[in-house]
Design brief:
- The protein starts with a helix and ends in a 6-residue tail after the last helix.
- The chain is mainly alpha-helical and 192 residues long.
- It has helices at residues 2-14, 17-20, 22-32, 34-60, 71-92, 97-102, 105-120, 124-151, 160-186.
- The radius of gyration is 18 Å and the shape is globular.
- Helix 1 (2-14) packs antiparallel against helix 4 (34-60).
- The protein has two domains: 1-62; 65-192, no CATH class.
- InterPro entries: NnrU_dom.
- Its main location: membrane.
């Protein structure tokens, strides 16, 4: 569990700099230069991610049951995860209503993904992983929207074409991940 916690602190910590001290982040980007800043940021993020993956794998070997969710919540999680994939796709598809309305649909996707997994799983390592991501995404979303308002950010209006592309891309990504990649990468078949 220690490696999982260390990975979460490193990964989410790096991704929280803007939440807690955006001015320091701006100063460091200016001091180091854009490429060095991005390189250091990426290196720390990758190290944190590797620790999360490895630590989660180790924690799964010594499971601690906190609660046993009803089977129906696993099916509900599949719908939450589909919505999460659509929200993440909407972060990258131009001119869609989700991005216009939310501003930061990827953070919304992380929240939905984490919440759905908390409903469907009940082991300590699951609660630590998904609870940490849910808390981080919630705080980051509030912080990002506050910055948007302070900076007068207005997102482009959405179009039906943008919505269709975001939903289609998210749905295709979800199908590929849920039906094939999740079992291969995570070792759990959510559809089986």
């Amino acid at each position: 569990m220690a490696l999982l916690l260390l990975g979460l602190v490193l990964f989410l910590g790096v991704h929280s700099i803007r939440i807690f001290d955006n001015d320091w982040r701006t100063q460091q980007r200016a001091r180091l230069g854009e490429m060095r800043w991005k390189g250091l940021y990426s290196l720390l993020s990758i190290a944190g991610f590797v620790l999360i993956v490895y630590g989660f794998g180790l924690a799964r070997q010594q499971p601690v049951v906190l609660y046993v969710p009803p089977m129906g919540l696993r099916h509900l999680n599949a719908l939450f995860t589909l919505l999460a994939f659509v929200l993440v796709a909407a972060a990258y598809v131009p001119a869609n209503h989700l991005k216009a309305k939310l501003g930061h649909p990827m953070l919304g996707g992380v929240k939905v993904w984490a919440f759905g997994h908390l409903l469907a799983t009940g082991m300590l390592h699951d609660v630590v992983l998904f609870g940490a991501f849910l808390l981080w995404a919630t705080v980051d979303f509030v912080s990002a929207r506050r910055r948007d308002r302070a900076d007068g950010v207005v997102y482009p209006a959405g179009t039906v074409k943008g919505d269709v592309i975001a939903v289609a891309a998210g749905a295709v990504g979800w199908v590929v991940f849920a039906w094939w990649l999740h079992a291969w990468l995570i070792g759990v078949n959510p559809m089986g």
